[in-house]
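Aim 2, interim progress: modelling of the MRU-bound target.
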Amino acid sequence: MGHSDGARAGTADRPGMAVRPPADTAARPPADTAVRPPADAPLAAPAAAPLAALRWLGPPEGPAIELLDQTRLPAEETFLRCDSVPELVDAISRLVVRGAPLLGVAGAYGVALAAYRGEDVVAAAAAITAARPTAVNLSWGVSRALRSYQAAAAGSGPVPAGESGALAAVAEAQAIATQDAAASAAMAEHGLTLVPAGARILTHCNTGGLVSAGAGTAFAVILAAHRAGKLAQLWVDETRPLLQGARLTAWEAGRAGLPHALLSDSAAASLMAAGQVDLVLTGADRIAADGSVANKVGTYGLAVLAKHHSVPFVVVAPVSTVDLDAPDGASITVEHRPADEVTRIAGQPVAPAGTHAYNPAFDVTPPDLVTAIVTEEGVIQPVTPGNLRVLGTPANDIAGPQSAVYVER
Ligand code: MRU
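Predicted structure of the complex, ligand included:
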């Protein structure tokens, strides 16, 4: 595993660090290997030049996965190279790469990495999946790549099984990234219909280009609203304990030129009470069959507040985040993380040594608090088990009371 610093070209400040030009100007392979918004996606591309959050390096440069190290943003645009599955698992666990859609892409490339290295691909898939249990996109992406690998390896004919399997896994990972970019653009369009003119939108955690091959999930809608002249103000929750809002969303909002302000999570209540929020938009890490939404801890509190203040609470997530095998919120595994993420801020202790902490990374919002779920397939409103099951169903084959579903296709 190695770091390369994209922001300080020409200064190798750590032994073993490769140095490269700034991320935006770095020589890159064709776009199909880099996870970035397509140049011609009108709603998906950020105003600032896109930053590739993940890049697959095939032989001879690799095999390896290069990640924009999100633990170092916004101070440094540093890239981390993972040459092995344990390195990737470590990067996923430490949130170097994070956010549901991008975890799906990273997991799929992880399977390809194991296949290229001639390793036990099934064991590698299990290790990657276990790195973070809540975001269903991770196991979904891993499973897709594993199935492709196994199918190709089984029917490889004269081509060595490992080689054709590895190529198939890479192709599947690239397909997942391409589909994610398209889903992001479609969610932006669907979500825009729910944004009122002059909207003051509150968001939580980070849901932009850093977590997606496109412009993201909730952030893609916010960006579309800005481009459509509908965004008056973006309120960015700082998102304790790891500050994805302060470090990452504020950074993305600044790059895209959005009018925005940062608030501590606990200020959201008085902000809503003051009538300063017209809409809450968040992403999701797993949506159960009953419409329960697991997302970054703090989301549930926002949904309760939104209900109390009659503010629409809208979740934006691709269909790959919907887990119809999870019947309800109680069946979703919530990841608990180390205490020092709470007892420290940016590495500095803020609590007495030895203080115990409660640190769930996510919480679960029940469906009755969710006004709508925006997916690439359309808008689910109201959020009911029947309406969720419509996802993935051909438009002319929807059973049940369609009047209950507002689905734009
Ligand atoms: O722990 P993280 O930073 O991976 O959590 C990310 C979130 O909770 C996002 O809101 C979620 O993945 C949806 S965004 C695409």
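The two ends are 43 Å apart (CA to CA). The chain has two domains: 54-182, 185-408.
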